[in-house]
Write a structure and sequence with these properties.
Chain lengths: ~230, ~230
């Protein structure tokens, strides 16, 4: 049986500790040593990772809250308050939509219900073909397939030209309200320059063209999945 | 000591200004100065990063071997920037939505690595912190001046959406200088930023030359006065 003498053990530890301490007396020599450099770099990386982990834990809740607030604010703009009495954010339906008009592999559809019946849906989608990449849209569609509201959530269009698709810059985006695939012909779903119903902006045709095409595609997506979306599931 | 501090302040704000004298960190400069509010937000975020990085590096300056200082600096800077990014996302969300894309890019802002290398790794923490603060404020000054010029010429407003950054108490900052202004698009785009920056740099050069000439002229006047008397 091995008996460990406490005193020798603590003495051994003390000696080792003092040895370690003494090395830090001559920092100039220490800095030259390869093992010290390796350990220091590893320690720095470890400390940085630790700090990031702690930072993430602290901010995670607040960030998720802010993002939910954002989503709720946009949903409030495309779905009139009077149409629903449920928590729209609570149970989004996820529709597999690879290759469809929404430009996403999976489209999250938020269901608005009143008295247990589906009254409208809202979903986020990508409008392809903007001047500087895709535009992210939020579409609100009533159960009969009419647009309740459209908002551009994110885009990288030219400030002062293409950014008139934002509600804060111009009312243009409100021109979609009430439109549907039945009250606007395929020819109508274009900008005026291309013979359609929607205005373009002076100096910027590409952005409105992308948004018009995107909204039309969003309606087609809704029509295709209409039965599925309007059936109430609990 | 106080003289040294005033020298640090002078260098950071004017004579060795990151933008106007060193001409570095131009990428974030041109990207965010479309409006004054964005410029101010980016400047303050960069200042916070500069001060934090300078202090960290100054404390570790005796421990960090020169052979591996660059990777250590980069790791520390990346850590601080990511923390600032997360904090802004959580508690300054509106501003983060506007600047979000540019915050992670502070990592690549060569001014921060430059100050770490040139100053913080050689000086005690208090001086390094002050240097970071002054360099950061100098950078903020450059951003705000360029942002103000571009915003006024580009869209006729000043500090548009400032209440998003500073809270509703600062809504009074939002002014429309030129009502019914139709906008001058070039100024809102990056080329306009380059043009304006050129004008500002030229302006600073002229000002510096005038300032340098003035003491000489004063001395000359004194000399002639002394001769006349």
């Amino acid at each position: 049986m091995i008996s460990i003498n406490r005193e020798t053990l603590s003495q051994f530890a003390l000696v080792q500790w003092q040895k370690l301490r003494r090395q830090f007396d001559d920092l100039d020599a220490l800095r030259q040593r390869l093992d010290y450099q390796t350990i220091l770099l590893a320690a720095c990386a470890m400390a940085a990772s630790l700090a990031l982990g702690v930072g993430d834990l602290i901010t995670k809740g607040a960030i998720a809250e802010r993002q939910a607030e954002d989503l709720r604010a946009t949903l409030g703009q495309v779905l009139p308050q009077t149409l629903y009495d449920n928590d729209v954010l609570a149970n989004p339906r996820v529709i597999p939509s690879a290759g469809e008009e929404t430009g996403l592999d999976q489209t999250e559809v938020f269901i608005a219900k009143k008295g247990g019946e589906v009254t409208a849906v809202a979903f986020k989608m990508l409008a392809k073909g903007g001047y500087a990449g895709d535009l992210t849209l939020m579409l609100g569609v009533g159960r009969e397939g009419r647009i309740l509201g459209v908002r551009v959530i994110a885009h990288a269009e030219t400030p002062g030209l293409g950014d008139k698709v934002e509600i804060s810059k111009s009312n243009w985006i409100l021109g979609f309200d009430g439109r549907s695939l039945s009250n606007t012909s395929t020819q109508g779903w274009r900008v005026k320059k291309d013979g359609g119903d929607f205005d373009q902006f002076a100096g910027a045709t590409i952005t409105p063209r992308a948004v018009v095409k995107g909204v039309e595609g969003g309606l087609r997506f809704f029509e295709r999945h209409r039965q599925e979306l309007l059936t109430t599931t609990e | 000591m106080s003289e040294s501090l005033s020298r640090i302040a002078k260098e950071g704000l004017w004579s060795n200004n990151i933008v106007f004298s060193q001409s570095i960190a131009l990428c974030p400069l041109l990207a965010v100065t479309g409006t004054t509010t964005n410029a101010l937000g980016m400047g303050l975020a960069t200042t916070a990063v500069l001060v934090a990085c300078n202090v960290l590096i100054s404390y570790g300056r005796l421990l960090i071997p020169s052979e591996i200082r660059i990777p250590v600096f980069v790791a520390l800077i990346a850590m601080v920037v990511t923390l600032v990014d997360m904090v802004m996302n959580a508690w300054l969300h509106e501003l983060h939505k506007v600047l979000g894309l540019f915050i992670p890019l502070i990592v690549t802002n060569c001014a921060i690595l430059g100050r770490a290398e040139a100053y913080a790794s050689r000086k005690p923490p208090a001086y390094a912190a002050f240097d970071g603060l002054m360099m950061g404020l100098g950078f903020t000054l450059a951003l705000v001046v360029l942002g103000a010029v571009r915003e006024v010429t580009g869209s006729g407003t000043l500090f548009a959406n400032a209440s998003l950054l500073l809270g509703h108490g600062f809504a009074w900052l939002e002014t429309t200088l030129i009502p019914e202004y139709r906008g001058f698009l070039l100024m809102a785009l990056p080329p306009g930023g380059f043009l304006m920056l050129g004008f500002l740099l030229a302006g600073k050069r002229i000002l510096d030359r005038r300032l340098a000439r003035r003491p000489a002229r004063n001395a000359a006047i004194e000399h002639t006065l002394a001769e006349q008397i």
